[in-house]
C-alpha cells in the first residue's frame, strides 16, 4: 500500500502539465508534432531512396516504375565497389581521412589559440589586426588558387622531391593552408570566448601564477568545448565534401580524395550503366559524417544555447 501511495504523486506530477493545457494548446501540440514527424520523414526519404537504389539491379534502378525496395536486395554491391580497382574507393577514403585528421587537429589548435589571443589578451592594435584577419574572408579561393599551386610546384622543384612515389606530397596543398587555422572558426570562437570566459577568472589564474598558455589550455578550451565541437563538425563536413581544390591538385588516381573518386564514378557510370554503384558510393561516403555528428551531437546542441561561467 505504501508503495502505491508513493507512486501516485509522481504520476500526477508527470501528467500535470498536459492536464493544465487548454484544448487549443493540446490541438496545437498534436498538429506541431505531426508536422515535425512529416518533416523528418520527408528529409529521410531521399536517404532511404539512395540505399534502396544501391541494392537494386541495374534494370530496377533504370525502371520508370516506382520501386521502393528491390525484390532481391543486392548486398554485395558494397563489396564489389570497395574491391573494384577501377574506382580506387578505399585509398580515396584513406587520403581524405589523412587530410581531415591532420588539418582538423593542428588547425583547430591554431584557430582556438588565435581566438583566445584576440578575445582575452591585451595587445596593441588588436582591432586593426582582427580587421585584417577578417578581411581575408572576403578573398575567394579562386583568387589564391593559382599562386598557391605555383608555390607548391616551386617547393617540389626546390627540394627535388621524387614524384615516382607521390604519396603524400600531392596532398600538401590541401593540408598546409589548413594548419594555420580556419578564419570562420576563429571569428566564431572569439565571440564565444568573450561571452563565456569571465575576465575575473583569468585574473585569478594570473595571480596564482598561471601562464597565458595554461589559461588557454585549462580554462578557455574546457569552457568553449561545445562551440569548438560545432565548428569541428562544420569543418569536417567542408573538407569531406570539398571537390574543387582536390580536382585541381590531384591528378594521380592514387592520391584522389573521396569526392574526386565519386565524381569519376559518376562520369563513368552516371549514364545509366551502373546507377547502384553510384548510390552505394554515396551511401558509404555519408557514413563518416553521420558518425562524427553522433559523437559530437550533444556538444553541437549545447553550442546553440552556449553559456559559460557567470561572474
Beta content: under 5%
**SSE succession:** HHHHHHHHHHHHHHH
Average residue pLDDT: 83
Global geometry: flat
Number of strands: 0
Percentage of helical residues?
over 70%
Low-confidence stretches: 1-14, 307-311
Distance between the termini: 49 Å
Helix count, DSSP H or I runs of 4 or more residues? 15
Largest sheet: none
> What's the Cα radius of gyration?
26 Å
Tell me about this structure.
The chain is an all-alpha fold. It is 74% helix and 0% strand. It is built from 15 helices and no strands. The protein has helices at 2-20, 23-54, 58-61, 77-83, 89-120, 126-135, 141-158, 172-179, 183-196, 199-207, 212-223, 225-240, 244-249, 258-269, 275-304. α5 packs across α14, α12 packs antiparallel against α15 (275-304) and α14 (258-269) packs antiparallel against α15. The longest helix is centred in the N-terminal third of the chain and has 32 residues, at 23-54. The protein is flat, with a radius of gyration of 26 Å.
Secondary structure layout plus pairing:
Layout: H1 2-20, H2 23-54, H3 58-61, H4 77-83, H5 89-120, H6 126-135, H7 141-158, H8 172-179, H9 183-196, H10 199-207, H11 212-223, H12 225-240, H13 244-249, H14 258-269, H15 275-304
Amino acid at each position: 500500500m505504501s508503495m502505491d501511495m508513493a507512486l501516485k504523486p509522481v504520476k500526477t506530477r508527470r501528467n500535470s502539465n498536459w492536464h493544465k493545457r487548454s484544448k487549443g494548446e493540446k490541438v496545437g501540440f498534436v498538429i506541431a508534432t505531426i508536422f515535425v514527424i512529416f518533416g523528418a520523414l520527408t528529409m529521410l526519404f531521399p536517404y532511404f531512396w539512395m540505399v534502396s537504389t544501391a541494392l537494386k539491379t541495374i534494370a530496377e534502378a533504370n525502371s520508370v516504375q516506382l520501386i521502393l525496395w528491390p525484390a532481391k536486395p543486392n548486398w554485395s554491391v558494397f563489396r564489389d565497389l570497395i574491391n573494384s580497382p577501377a574506382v580506387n574507393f578505399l585509398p580515396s577514403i584513406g587520403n581524405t581521412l589523412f587530410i581531415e585528421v591532420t588539418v582538423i587537429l593542428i588547425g583547430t589548435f591554431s584557430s582556438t589559440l588565435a581566438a583566445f589571443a584576440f578575445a582575452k589578451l591585451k595587445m596593441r592594435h588588436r582591432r586593426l589586426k582582427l580587421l585584417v584577419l577578417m578581411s581575408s574572408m572576403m578573398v575567394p579561393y579562386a583568387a589564391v588558387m593559382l599562386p598557391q599551386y605555383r608555390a607548391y610546384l616551386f617547393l617540389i622543384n626546390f627540394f627535388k622531391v621524387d614524384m615516382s612515389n607521390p604519396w603524400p606530397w600531392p596532398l600538401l596543398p590541401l593540408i598546409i593552408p589548413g594548419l594555420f587555422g580556419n578564419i570562420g572558426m576563429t571569428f566564431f570562437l572569439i565571440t564565444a570566448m568573450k561571452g563565456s570566459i569571465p575576465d575575473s577568472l583569468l585574473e585569478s589564474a594570473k595571480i596564482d601564477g598561471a601562464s597565458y598558455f595554461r589559461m588557454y589550455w585549462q580554462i578557455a578550451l574546457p569552457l568553449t568545448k561545445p562551440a569548438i565541437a560545432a565548428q569541428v563538425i562544420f569543418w569536417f563536413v567542408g573538407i569531406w565534401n570539398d571537390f574543387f581544390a582536390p580536382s585541381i591538385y590531384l591528378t594521380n588516381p592514387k592520391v584522389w580524395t573521396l569526392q574526386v573518386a565519386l565524381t569519376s564514378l559518376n562520369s563513368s557510370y552516371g549514364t545509366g550503366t551502373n546507377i547502384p554503384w553510384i548510390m552505394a558510393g554515396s551511401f558509404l561516403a555519408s557514413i563518416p559524417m553521420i558518425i562524427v555528428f553522433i559523437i559530437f551531437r550533444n556538444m553541437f546542441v549545447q553550442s546553440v544555447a552556449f553559456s559559460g561561467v557567470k561572474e
